[in-house]
Amino acid sequence: MMHLFTQVDQPFTDSSNAELNIFLATDQTNNQLPWQMKFTLTGIEKTTSTFIRCICAVDFYCKSSVMAHGYSKDSNGWPDENGTYAVPGMIKSCFTIDTLLLSTLECFYLESCISVIYNLINETLIHHMTDLIWFQIYPLIYKQELSRFSPNASLSIIVKEMMIEQWIPSSSFDYYYEQCAPIYCTYSDTTRTYNIIGIITKVISTIGGLIMILRLITPLFVKIIVRLLTPRTPRQEQDIPMSFDRFKQMFRNLITLLLTTLRNLNIFPIRSFGSNTTRMEAKHLGQLTTRLYLILLLISFVILSLNTAVRPQTLINTYMQPSLDIYNRLLLDHPDSIQCPCSSISIPYGKFIDIEPVFHQICSSQFVSDEWRTNILAGLVSNLSIYSQDDYRRFLPAHLQFLSGLCNLSKQSTNDSINQFLSSSFVTANLLPESIFHVQIEPFIIKSKSNTPTDFARLLSLLRSINHGNAIVTSYGTNFEYIVPWYNMILSAAITQPVMYNDNQCNCTLTANCTIQTNFIV
After folding, report:
1. CA atoms within 13 Å, Cβ hemisphere of 193
2. Other beta carbons less than 10 A from residue 446's beta carbon
3. Segments forming the whole domain that contains residue 94
4. Is residue 417 one of the residues assigned to a domain?
């Protein structure tokens, strides 16, 4: 959107899109009016030379290394005033922000590079009287197992990740359970059998209806069968020889009595078989009906008892306000049926999640401290314009300030993002098992970790695009410079021209990343 407005409004930036000229104006009667300044729209100048111009507004890949003059050593180990020292990882570009983002922190890991900075500080302390307290600075130590950023990783990569080495999130199921505070837990338990009391109770509750049904259908059933079948001759029973044992005789007499009673048992009155049946026939049919009735009743009783005994039954058990230990035991015994409604369905993540970011070691080192920056800049002239465009001292204050600012912004943005995430709520009606709890929480943590660097990188990209798209002239003179025109100074136009890098291969008008190697010039 910002680029679109820039293209439509065409703000005055440099000679690539407009020139400010002085015109002599007259009115309709040819009377001379005061001098006026008007914009004259121009375009990007095309060249027929063999090299391709690198323009900051179009190309993003022009760059050059930083050179330190007078800090190399000759064969005898003495400083070579005519020699140059390529500062490892340092890149010069159109803007200070581009210069730093394209550079690496490699110099801060090398003792040889730190010694160059020491030479600069020592020279400052010797030639200038200061009240600064000297302190020792040590190079950074790279450990691959502790840092995911190598020393030669560009600062843009580190900033893109907000200088965060790693995230250390931790979620506590104990705290989650405490916040959920289930009111009760229920689970269903399926049983296959009743106890003896349950079976008897179940059978008795149904036996009354069964008796009534059998009393109604049994007489009719026996009457039909007797009419269809030929009457059989009663079987002659043989006399049971008497035993000499009196007890056996009494037992046999009892059995005989029971059999006789059952044989002659008749619980159905004569009217059950109709008025056309004689008394003898009714008695005989009643005895047969009673026997069939008792047999059917016994069979029904057995079937009903077996059905009651083997039929599964679902029981609902409830535990009020169970502790975490009880819940874990219930979950182990009944993993598929346990349910525990939470007393609060909305729980802030901060109640059971903790996220601790670990930033790049540069952000906790002395290189971003105020004391280090004060010592480095103590001997510099307040007017940095006196330093050459190739002298790194011209840009050193801005680089140190920007590096420190990036660390602070990264920490602040990260903490704000973490606080925003932890203040949001996790919504669930029922208590989640610990395994499912971690599975559902992990995607939210991953999303928070990825969104934070992305939002920060977008903000930096927007700021860089605004500066570059509007061709804002930096006071360091690294992207544009004012030139004295060759024609009449009085009638000259206020024009600028882009700074060229890499033997005129990189033009800061078309390329945002034009860079060269900076130097420490003595």
Report:
1. 4
2. 12
3. 2-141+158-176+344-511
4. yes
Kindly report, residue by residue over 308-360, the tens digit of the pLDDT.
666 666 677 787 888 888 888 888 888 888 888 888 888 888 888 888 888 88
User: Alpha-carbon distance 367 to 137, whole Å?
Assistant: 8
Residue for token pair 């000679």: 15
- b/e per residue 473-487 (b: at least 16 CB within 10 A): bbebebbbeeeeeee
Q: Same domain, yes or no, for 124 and 202?
A: no
CA distance linking residue 1 with residue 59, whole number of Å: 20
* Upper half-sphere CA count for residue 41 (Cβ side, 13 Å): 4
Q: In the numeric block, which tokens belong to residue 238? A: 């043989």
pLDDT score, position 454: 82
Instruction: Report whether pLDDT(403) > 70.
Output: yes
In the block, tokens 């010797």 appear at 126
Tokens 């599964």 belong to 312
Q: Identify the domain boundary among 287, 311, 335.
A: 311
d(CA 311, CA 313): 7
The tokens for 66 are: 């930083």
pLDDT in tens, 113-168: 887 777 766 665 555 555 555 666 788 888 888 888 888 888 888 877 777 788 77
Residue 151 included in any domain: no
For 119, counting Cβ atoms within 10 Å of its Cβ (0-12 exposed, 13-18 middle, 19+ buried), the class is middle
Number of structural domains the chain divides into? 2
Q: Is residue 421 part of a domain?
A: yes
Window from 33-42, 49-58, 206-215 with minimum mean pLDDT: 49-58
Q: Is 522 part of a structural domain of the chain?
A: no
